[in-house]
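Sharing a chain and its predicted structure for anyone who wants a worked example. Both blocks are below, sequence first, tokens second.
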Amino acid sequence: MKRGFRKITKKSVEDDYEHNVWMAIEDIWVEMYASYGMPPEVIRDKIEFLVDAYIQFIESETAKDLHRMAAHKKRKLR
């Protein structure tokens, strides 16, 4: 039997990322609601705070990496 391979496309990768984010947020939301009885608005605030903090961290780390990178490597990323 011949095994088929899924063709990786830009759209499928974006779909995977979106699906992973959705699942992570859903798991966090359900855990906070079911296990700790947090109200939905508190859960929303906590999740938004965490996501924003992680994005800020990643952006600052990326900026540091770009500052240490050689000029010819930066041009390749453009």
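Comments welcome. DSSP finds three helices and no strands in the chain.
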